[in-house]
Every structure is written in structure tokens, then in C-alpha cells.
Automatic annotation (TrEMBL):
It comes from the Bacteria. It comes from Streptomyces sp. SID7499. The lineage of its organism: Bacteria, Bacillati, Actinomycetota, Actinomycetes, Kitasatosporales. This is protein-serine/threonine phosphatase. It is an enzyme of class 3 (hydrolase). One of its GO terms (molecular function) is ATP binding.
Length: 307
């Protein structure tokens, strides 16, 4: 640290430097964190003044605190950028095009913390069926995004090898327990035959989906399900078979869309159902815009959202 009682003293120490000698004292404080410079702090005063030993000690200590805070902020920015890049790389760039079925996915990051969570969606063309997937890994940040990527890859591998829906979820559950004991995730997996409209659905601790029928009636599908993934390797996940008629629309979403302070999840799901019923049979993009409209407009979104 360097302390100059006046700009005249600074000019004497560094002759030839353009200096406004009409202003006061200056304190130049290097910001050092973990033995490396991360910046500098310059304190200016409007008049000449001396710096007592106590003041110099306090200002030097203050510079140390600023350096640590700046270092943490830089690390946070780096980790946040890494997590966002990881998640963007893992979410599908495009969804498969299959005759008779229109699909659309949306993702909104949270506005708190790392801004990146473990929500994901996927649509997988298995050759005979179309697998619709929505999932949510506990937590936020790089770890959640990394776990999400592993689970998404596992689900895709099981699906592309024509595993039954129950086997897909059971296998993913065992994988998560092996990968990270103590971590858990929810998931809903629907295997749809695009020709017959027959769908087989499995739910693991995930919010119930919403179905709009061709006549406009909209309902919450009360799918029996198992516990979240990552808790019990012997957990069972029942399969529900249903038929989606031409013109029907199925909405899968994560809890970030339906959670609000002071309300329970069932109220949130009912809110989504009512919104879908109200807007009627419009293009999927418009439906997604209206369903997520309130969340997109919110300045405080504690959780990320996948639809």
C-alpha cells in the first residue's frame, strides 16, 4: 500500500506524471487474494490529510476483504458461465420431427444463485415410439447440471435400446444411486406410439402432467408413481397406459412452473391446467408462451423451469 498526504507529495514521488495538485490525499491499495493480485483500490480525499498508523492498518485490512470478495465474485462468474454452458450443451438443440406429432420444449433459468439448475427435457425418437422426458435434479450449479447431463444420457441410452418405460426409470434410478448417493431427481417418462396414439407413462416423484383433449376438456393426469430417483434402488415404478387422440396435447413441466410461496403444488398444477384450457387449441408455441408468461415476467424466479 502507498499513502500520500497530498497530491504534491505524490508529484514529488513520481515527477513528470500529470497530476491535479488541487485535490487532496490518496491511498493506493493493492488487492491481493491467495498471493495473487486481483485488482487495485484507490481512495481519494478532497483535501490533504495524514494517515495515522491505525488508519493505514484499517485501510490495508479493508483492501484484503475487498480482494477476497472480488476473488469470490470472479470465481462465481466463472462457475456460473461454466454451468450455463454445460446446461446449454446438454439441452436438445432441436427436437425430432415425427409425422403426426408436434413437439416443443422451453427452458427458463432461475434468477437466484447460479441461475442454473438440474431441469431438463428431451424428446427421443426410438424408431417405433417417441419418448417424451422431463426431469429435475435437486439443487443448482455445476454439480446439478453435471448430474442432469448424466441422467439425460442414461435415459437416452435406455430408450434407444428399446427398454420398457419402467425399465428406463428403474435403470436411471440405480445409476443415480451409484453416481451420487444422497442426490435425488424427479422424472416423468412417456413412451408414445405416434401411429396408434397409445402412450405408456411412468412417474418418479414428478409433478402430474396435464392433458388437453381434442374437445377442449383439460385434466390433470393422476398417474400413479414411485418415489424420486436416487433414494431406493429397489423402488418400483408403475406404468400407466392411455391413448392420446388426434388433436390432444400433453404438457410435461418441472416444479419451477407451479411453485409459489404460500401455495401447494396441487394449486400450481391446477393453475397450469386452467391456463391451457382457457387458451384452447392454439399453436404449441403460443401455448408455451402463455403457460410460461407469468414466470418469464417475474423478476424473482427462485427455480428454473422446463416445459
Amino acid at each position: 500500500p502507498m499513502f500520500f498526504e497530498s497530491m504534491q507529495r505524490l508529484a514529488e514521488a513520481y515527477p513528470g506524471i500529470p497530476i491535479d495538485t488541487d485535490v487532496g490525499a490518496r491511498a493506493f491499495l493493492p488487492l491481493i487474494a491467495a498471493g495473487r493480485p486481483v485488482g487495485s483500490c484507490i481512495l481519494g480525499f478532497d483535501r490533504p490529510r495524514g494517515f495515522s498508523p491505525e488508519e493505514r492498518t484499517v485501510l490495508t485490512a479493508l483492501a484484503g476483504l475487498i480482494a477476497q470478495a472480488l476473488k469470490r465474485a470472479q470465481r462465481y462468474d466463472s462457475e456460473s458461465a461454466l454451468a450455463r454452458g454445460l446446461q446449454n450443451a446438454l439441452l436438445p438443440l432441436r427436437l425430432p420431427e415425427v409425422d403426426g406429432v408436434d413437439t416443443l420444449g422451453r427452458y427458463l433459468s432461475g434468477t437466484q444463485g447460479m441461475d442454473v439448475g438440474g431441469d431438463w427435457y428431451d424428446v427421443i425418437d426410438t424408431g417405433g415410439e417417441l419418448a417424451l422426458v422431463i426431469g429435475d435434479v435437486q439443487g443448482h450449479g455445476v454439480a446439478a447440471a453435471a448430474t442432469m447431463g448424466q441422467l439425460r444420457s442414461a435415459v437416452r441410452a435406455f430408450a434407444l435400446n428399446n427398454y420398457d418405460p419402467q425399465e428406463v426409470i428403474s435403470g436411471t434410478n440405480r445409476l443415480l444411486i451409484d453416481l451420487d448417493p444422497g442426490q435425488f431427481a424427479s422424472c416423468c417418462y412417456v413412451a408414445l406410439d405416434p401411429v396408434t396414439g397409445v402412450a405408456r407413462a411412468v412417474r418418479a416423484g414428478h409433478p402430474q402432467p396435464v392433458l388437453r383433449r381434442p374437445d377442449g376438456r383439460t385434466e390433470v393426469l393422476e398417474l400413479p408413481g414411485g418415489i424420486v430417483l436416487g433414494i431406493d434402488e429397489q423402488a418400483s415404478y408403475p406404468v400407466t397406459e392411455m391413448r392420446l387422440e388426434p388433436g390432444a396435447m400433453l404438457a410435461l413441466f418441472t416444479d419451477g412452473l407451479i411453485e409459489r410461496p404460500g401455495t401447494d403444488i396441487d394449486e400450481g398444477i391446477e393453475r397450469v391446467r386452467a391456463t391451457i384450457e382457457r387458451i384452447g387449441a392454439v399453436p404449441l408455441a403460443e401455448t408455451a408462451d402463455q403457460v410460461t408468461g407469468e414466470a418469464r415476467a417475474a423478476t424473482d424466479r427462485p427455480d428454473d423451469i422446463a416445459l
